[in-house]
Amino acid sequence: MERALQGISASPGIVIGPVHLLHWEVPDVPQRIIPDEDIEGEIARLHQALGVARGRLRAVRERAERHAGEEDARIFDAQLLLLDDHEITSRVESYIRQNLGAEKAFDVVLLEWRQHFARSTVPMLRERVGDLTDLHIRVLSILLGLGDHDPVDVPKGANAIIVTHDLTPSLTVQLDREAIAGIATDSGTRTSHVAILARSLGIPAVVGLRDATSRLRGDERLVLDGSSGMLIVNPSEAEVATFAHRALLEKQDEAELAKIADAEAVTTDGVRITVRVNVDLPEESDQAAHSGAEGVGLMRTEFLVVGRASMPDEEEQYREYTKVAKAFHGQPVVIRTFDIGGDKLPVGGFPHEANPFLGWRAIRMCLDEPLLFKTQLRALLRAAVHGDIRIMLPLVVSLDEVTATRALIREAMQELEAQQIPFKRDVPVGVMIETPAAAVAVDTFLDESEFFSIGTNDLVQYTLAVDRGNANMASRFTPLHPAVLRLIRRTSEVGQAHGLEVCVCGEMASEPLLAFVLVGLGIRQLSVNPRAVPLVKRIIRGVSASFAREAADAAVNARTAAEAQRELEFRLRAAFGNVSFIRDALH
């Protein structure tokens, strides 16, 4: 096999360690017809496998509770309940009594149940599909003698690199940061859920490897270079030394950049840019608050839901939002309402759809589930007492969605007032510009929105008709396409003309070259991942706004994304030279 596997850079950093190969997919099950005299033995084998799975799940739950806390560990409670479901067991036994081997009988029943739940009109049943899938994999693995490969099996200090097809919510919640040094996945792109979470956790990651799980045996040693998106299999001592030296240089660059983390982001001609931070998990808020950022430009609340067996109640949400607000001591904290759907699903999804990015997600799901949505709005209004919380609505394409949300906010206020629960009345509400429709008609939102935030991950996806999570399409996911740049500029111009703050909070803002063009497009607020704060500030402090504007004009007028990139790189090198942090940032 090739020793160098090329994927997509997802989270920077270089780590060297052993492979922990995780096959977490429903295995192929051969059909096996059994004679009548073997039926009782097969039923006994089924119950033995269920018992092993039950013990395994309890151990996994216990360890997940130690790593991630009681709330996240509850994801496994639903699976334990399903494991004891008499209807499932009796259905499998009935197929065995029709002379079907235990593994095929279980496979058939779980497929039936997953399809039935996925089509259900009851949200709680749809939520169980992921639990059924995990159970499907676990029990079949035992029946087929394939063994268990939960990430919790990695011992602390192993410095292992987990290699898997994708990280599902139930796998993610088990990750022990003291055991896992890096993440590599066959699927995914820079803007997929696993990539965003890896950057948030500060774990080096490579995604989009396509077939690493089938090419690796599991006994190899790897170099994972999250900056270049490469895996080196069984590196030589010379290669290990080279990458270790590069890792040292990266740490030195980070230390040098950290010196300006608290400096103001002001261009050389005096234009001030506000740099805020993206927060994915509330427990990150204390660390993020010391990154040099001026508040939170995007808190992704769906990470309170992904990997959960049930939706968080009002009290839990209130505590988590309050935690972030207090960590930032009165600085703005922009909290996005649930963006569930696409590649960010609760356990089982809401629901499974053929084309989820164009389906029932984000504001659409929230407005169709007003009780769920109002629970979140009540929690946000209450938490706003403790800081400058602002509410942001995802995937809005019509003014009707904003006015409907404002009506629910008024209802939530009336309920809180009647219960004499403290809350803040004048919480700003903003709209995310994530589709061409919203960008073209951005002026229609002016009367009902206090700010705009451009979500470039989805804006690129919908403008270019490229699935942001599809590794096969990663090379076509090009934020510098002239159409994308023109939509950003239009949003910026309309917002500024009417005195509204316009922020870019997608992953585009965290990339040095792209932050440069955003400043040139007139964006004056950027929200980036915590590690990118000093680098983005270094870019801003090293150029003039007028120079950035000239570069953006050239990029907007380019015929292709590649041409736009060349124009920007040429100018950025002219401003900074070939210094190491710019050289690394451009590759």
Cross-sheet strand order for the largest sheet: 1-8-7-3-4-5-6-2
- The number of domains: 3
CATH topology of the largest domain: TIM Barrel
State the CATH superfamily name of the largest domain: Phosphoenolpyruvate-binding domains
Which CATH-level-2 architecture of the largest domain? Answer: Alpha-Beta Barrel
Helical content stands at: 40-55%
What can be said about the biggest beta sheet?
8 strands, mixed
Number of strands: 16
Secondary-structure class: alpha/beta
Distance between the termini: 26 Å
Mean pLDDT: 88
Taking pLDDT < 50 over at least 5 consecutive residues as the criterion, the unreliable ranges are none
Structure description:
- The chain is an alpha/beta fold and 587 residues long.
- It folds into three domains: 4-24 and 150-253, 3-Layer(bba) Sandwich (Glucose Oxidase, domain 1), CATH 3.50.30.10; 36-143, Enzyme I, Chain A, domain 2; 274-530, TIM Barrel, CATH 3.20.20.
- It contains 24 helices and 16 strands.
- Strands 1-8-7-3-4-5-6-2 form an eight-stranded mixed sheet. Strands 9-10-11-12-13-14-15-16 form an eight-stranded parallel beta barrel, surrounded by four helices.
- It is globular and about 85 Å long.
- The protein starts with a strand and ends with a helix.
